[in-house]
C-alpha cells in the first residue's frame, strides 16, 4: 500500500497548465490564462516572463539547443525562450492552426501538433517550419512524443486514434478499440511502448511501436485523465483533471490513484522534476511535488 505526499508551491495569479524540466535544473511552466512562462527552482520563489497576455502558451519542452520551446495556442505560433529569458516567436504558415503539443525529435528539430488544421509541424532550431497533412480531417491532433523507434507519436483526440509520423513525413494511423475515447496526453515509457490517457472514457492506454493497443480502465471513468509521464519508480504517472487526483500505473497495468488534498485543484500537466520527484501543474494556482511513501500493511 502506498501514499503520496504532496507539497505545493504557489504560483502568482493565473494558473499553470504544463511544465517540464529545463537544462538549467529548473522547472519551466506555462501560464495559459495570462500569457506568461514561469521558472521555478525547487525551494525558491518562481520567476516569470511576460508574453502577449492573449497568446495562450500551452505545452513546453526542452529543445536540442538548450532552450525551452512552447506552443502559443491562441497566437498560432511556436515560441523559444532561453534559460536567460530571451523570447523568440515563430509564426506558422497555416493561419489559425492552433498549435498544442510539442516535443524534441530524433532529428534535432522540434515536432508539434496543429489541432485546428489537421497537421503535424516540424520546426528547426533556427525557425524553419515544415507542415505535414494528416490523412483524416477533424482529428484534433493533441499531445506528441518521440518514440524509441525513431518516429514521433501523437494523439488524435477527435479521430479516436494514435498517429505516428516518421522524420520523412510518412504517417500511420492506429484506431483505438474503445469508441470515442478522446486520447490527449502521450509519453514514451520504460518498456519501449507509448502510453497515453483517454480523457473521455477514463482509461490509460499502451501502444507498442508495431501498433498493438492495450487499454486499462481507471477506477473512476469520469476522472478525465489529461497528461502522463514516466517516473523514476518504474511507473507512469498521470493527472485526473476531472477527478481531482493523480495516479500511477505500472507497465503491467496496476493502477493506484490518490486524491489531492484541496478540492478543485485541476491537475493538468505532469513531469519528472530535476530532483527526481514527479511534479504536476495545478491550474488552481500551484505547482505540486509528489513523492511516494510506502507503508507496511
Report on the structure:
- The protein is globular.
- By secondary structure, it is an all-beta fold.
- The protein has strands spanning 2-10, 19-21, 27-31, 36-40, 47-50, 57-62, 68-72, 77-81, 87-91, 99-104, 110-114, 119-123, 129-133, 141-146, 152-156, 161-165, 171-175, 183-188, 194-198, 203-207, 213-217, 225-230, 235-240, 245-250, 255-259, 267-272, 278-282, 286-294.
- The model has no long low-confidence stretch (mean pLDDT 94).
- A 4-stranded antiparallel β-sheet has the order 1-28-27-26, with no helix packed on it.
- The protein has one domain (2-294): Methylamine Dehydrogenase, Chain H (7 Propeller), CATH 2.130.10.
- It contains no helices and 28 strands.
- The protein is 0% helix and 52% strand.
- Strand 3 and strand 4 form a beta hairpin.
Task: Map the helices and strands.
Blueprint: E1 2-10, E2 19-21, E3 27-31, E4 36-40, E5 47-50, E6 57-62, E7 68-72, E8 77-81, E9 87-91, E10 99-104, E11 110-114, E12 119-123, E13 129-133, E14 141-146, E15 152-156, E16 161-165, E17 171-175, E18 183-188, E19 194-198, E20 203-207, E21 213-217, E22 225-230, E23 235-240, E24 245-250, E25 255-259, E26 267-272, E27 278-282, E28 286-294
Task: Please list the strands of the largest sheet in the order they lie side by side.
Answer: 1-28-27-26
| Global morphology | globular
Number of domains: 1
Helices and strands: which structural class? Answer: mainly beta
Radius of gyration: 18 Å
**Would you identify the regions where 5 or more consecutive residues have pLDDT less than 50?**
none
In helices, the fraction of residues equals under 10%
Keywords: Antibiotic resistance, Lyase, Magnesium, Metal-binding
GO molecular function: lyase activity
EC number: 4.2.99.-
Subunit structure: Monomer.
